[in-house]
């Protein structure tokens, strides 16, 4: 069988692994369902073209167990469904029909929408499972596994996704290695094809021409990293994915600029901090940074390097704070569980992120990018990467949770600055009116100071009034903090009046 032979003879180890995994899924489906119960959803796109040839190979191998066959071109009995639409590109339509003829596909052409088309088809035929060319990174892949039942509200069938874990690069490695035909649009700069209304060639493949004649494009396989695959597709921006601030009880976004009180919670992940082996300096720095831009930090926690501990803390903090910051436990080690904990807190799984993998590859080469790079697995469907030219690897943001990879103060300083400057952060760290603070010291005893300070708190409930001492021998420091400098000044004067003249002096 030519496909199986081409892949087995190639020296692309990663492609072989992906191929074997996909063939495994296909063969399990062929073992679970009869041929009449299976269907293949084919639309002439690159992913479904890959799937067609994998199904041909998988079917050939499956049948080989039962009888001898040389796997002729016309040997493909799985019912194929194509939702034909007037808004599809003519090239896609032509390729789909030509391919059906070449490979003898028994094609059911449906002209309704997906859901009602499937409802009618499943009433008429004994179909129980449908093969799809869905890949992680596709908007519709979120939450799907290789075998995923159709969603509630859809007719009941099993969605079988043999190439779910394939990347853009894997798709092209397969198509080029197996030397199969694909739709001509992929040679004209199209990298992912939707309808004629929402798809244009990928500008990143444009070949600049100064003559002003028709713009030319490089072929899709030359797009070096898959993160740009959808650059030619009209964006459907999901409001929830880019939302930084929780909606208020009326479902309205909190207008951060109007809001002078935004809160951030800090979570350090580190057994070593809890055992006292390492002193946490990053939490201190983050508190200072947040305070300097007018944010308030109601709590900072240290949790163990344990998925459930991280998940529990994140789950609590993300719903009660505008932002949550994590550090520690990021990397390839067994104890690096922070991202898994964040994924668990949001109820999603970790999935390979091709864009992130590309950055890691630039940083650490192919050291750990064999068949699977664990470090490139990020919470699926909720992760945004925040880029900055000074960051070798982007920062990870999962809705209102940001994960720093910094391991010391200077790395965190740099990542913080990049976060503030990053255009991708969607203003999630909007600077607020800064705090105005006055520190006053006194040699009065705590007992003498206690009652007047309690009264002051009642008189200025809008201000934060706190006290601390560096040691029992040193003076008591009273700090008065608020967003209105005039109020802070009034409180300082009121405090002085409650004591003998000269009892308090102001320090910086
Ligand atoms: C055979 C088939 C089965 C599908 N099953 C489901 C499903 O179970 N749940 C769902 O939400 N969408 C399902 N879809 C719809 C796709 O997830 C997706 O909405 C569709 O490919 C359209 O993508 P577009 O909006 O980018 O055009 C199915 C589509 C096809 C072709
Ligand atoms: N009109 C359709 N008819 C039948 N199946 C479809 C149709 N549209 C989508 N599908 C199924 O959904 C899968 C995912 O579609 P998607 O558009 O992401 O991939 P593709 O069309 O194969 O490749 P590309 O990303 O280059 O457009 C397809 O591989 C196919 O199995
Ligand atoms: Mg498509």
From TrEMBL:
GO biological process: FAD biosynthetic process
Xref: InterPro entries: MoaB/Mog-like_dom_sf (IPR036425), MoaB/Mog_dom (IPR001453), PAPS_reduct_dom (IPR002500), Rossmann-like_a/b/a_fold (IPR014729)
Record key words, sorted: ATP-binding, FAD, Flavoprotein, FMN, Nucleotide-binding, Nucleotidyltransferase, Transferase
Keyword Hydrolase listed: no
Superkingdom assignment: Eukaryota
Pathway(s) it belongs to: Cofactor biosynthesis; FAD biosynthesis; FAD from FMN: step 1/1
Gene Ontology molecular functions: ATP binding; FMN adenylyltransferase activity
Catalysed reaction equations from the record: FMN + ATP + H(+) = FAD + diphosphate
Primary enzyme class: transferase
Protein name: FAD synthase
Naturally occurring in which organism (per UniProt): Rubroshorea leprosula
